[in-house]
Amino acid sequence: MTDTPTRITPRDLLRNRDFRLLWIGQSISNFGDSMTNLALLLLVNHLTGSTAALATMAIVLALPTLTFGLIAGVYVDRWDRKRVMIVSDLIRGVLVLGFVLVDAPEKLWLLYLIGFLQASIGTFFNPARSALIPNLIPREGLLAANSLTQMTQIMFGLLGAAAAGAMIGALDLYWPAFVIDALTFFIALALVAFIHYQRQTAPKTDAVSPKVIFGELVGGLRITFGNRVLAGTILALAVTMLGLGAVNILLVPLIVNDLQIPETWFAGVEFAQVSAMILSGAVLAGLAAKFKPTQILAVSFVGVGVTIGLLSGVSAAWQLLAILFGAGLFITPLQASAQTIAQTAVPDEVRGRTGAANNAVITTANLISMAAAGVLADAMGVRTVFIVSGVVVASAGLIAALMFRGVEMPQPKAVAQSAEV
Fold first, then answer.
1. Tens digit of pLDDT for each residue in 163-187?
2. For the whole model, what pTM was predicted?
3. Residue 397 CA, distance from chain mean position
4. Which of 68, 132, 296, 371 is the most exposed place for a label (fewest CB within 10 A)?
5. How many Å separate Cα 235 from the centre of its chain?
6. 391, exposed or middle or buried, with CB in 10 Å at 0-12, 13-18, 19+?
7. Contacts of range 381-388, beta carbons closer than 8 Å, 24 or more positions apart
8. CA 230, CA 117: separation in Å to the nearest integer?
């Protein structure tokens, strides 16, 4: 428990004009993103009927984070973050319209190309958005803000997926989802354009060279992993994704093959976890000031690990729903507290590189886990993999607790002149 908690409620956050503009814009954009994500899956399946094609799309979307992510973080720290977000949304809004042209299997290459380009632009947008939030609200409101953001992201993501599924099912058309997503990008960038914020460090305007970029990248990574709290968070998240990646792949075989639950139950399975994530996000947003992000993170890792391990023993649909609901209660606090630590543990001028490094590590661990899922399932069985995954994720909580022990959350100070944007 904190000694002198300052209570900042979701209502207080939404009274903040600039945070409100960002929150509304990103909620709308999340709705459109979810429409496109589901529409792409359904379109690829419709055109090819191939799981290999779906896997290829997943890899294509993940590659930019691994290849460009760290470099993008350097530029995010050099440039004006609001402008990065506006330009990124403009480009992505135009790119997503290109999916409309994909209407035959021989045009699948175009879908992969556009998806890769969109994900590449996202490597600039996501760290910029994360780094911007601490410039809009006080430090003590970050955990509540991240909880509210996670909650609404999940909620609007669910609504977007439901809308896309209903629309595609009724019209047998995929292109309307892409057009709507493009509109949400344009609405979001218009709202971001009206944001005013006080950046703690002025954007850099000097000429850049590969040597300068590499030096700033190394410097940012040195600060990131030299911070015990942040290094512990990133390490624990990497360990967690080594466990969760396999779970995401093997949950479907568990449901369909082992439990023989009809596909019609998938909506209920999704709702069980999502409803818990929304509930825990709402509770955490209201109670954020009472707890330290490091405390919440360590407990959440253990909670997720235990619930994943319990999946190995399910024998009925109601047990599966109850366990996934329990897992959902820990996921939003985990994500919100990790985001808060990343935003507060380092100075403003390296937050872009910190966010990019975090994304790269998590994506790498997730891909490794997903790639190993099939091999592990064949070797030891699906249910045993859930036990192993649960132990791995729970161990992340122990790693975090040890790394955080006796360490107070740092109070970073900017080293350069502030600039109003």
1. 888 898 889 899 999 999 999 999 9
2. 0.80
3. 19
4. 371
5. 16
6. middle
7. 382/250, 382/253, 382/254, 382/257, 382/258, 383/254, 383/258, 383/311, 383/312, 383/313, 384/312, 385/246, 385/247, 385/250, 386/247, 386/250, 386/254, 386/308, 386/309, 386/311, 386/312, 387/309, 387/312, 388/243
8. 30
Instruction: Give the DSSP letter of residue 104.
Output: S
Q: What angle do CA 322, 36, 193 make, to 5 degrees?
A: 105
Closest CA to 326 of 341, 340, 314: 314
Has domain 10-201+211-409 been given CATH number 3.40.50.720? no
The full set of domain ranges for the chain reads 10-201+211-409
The DSSP 8-state label assigned to residue 410 in this structure reads P
Sign of CA dihedral 8, 401, 409, 152: negative
Contact 372, 364 (CB under 8 A): no
Q: For the chain, what percent of residues have pLDDT higher than 90?
A: 30
pLDDT band of 418, cuts 50, 70, 90: very low
Mean pLDDT of 151-159: 88
161, 163, 168, 174 alpha-carbon torsion, rounded to 10°: -70
Pick the residue with more confidence: 188 or 208?
Answer: 188
Maximum pairwise Cα distance, the chain: 62
Q: Please name the helix (run of DSSP H) or strand (run of DSSP E) that holds residue 419, with its range, or none.
A: strand 419-420
How big is the chain, counted in residues? 421
- Around 76, how many Cα atoms within 13 Å sit in the side-chain half-sphere? 32
pLDDT band at residue 255 under the 50/70/90 scheme: confident
pLDDT score of 417: 38
- CB contact set of 350 (below 8 Å; sequence gap of 6+): 77, 219, 220, 223, 224
Specify whether the backbone of 172 is left (phi greater than 0), alpha (psi in -120 to 50) or beta.
Answer: left
Residue 266, pLDDT > 80, answer no
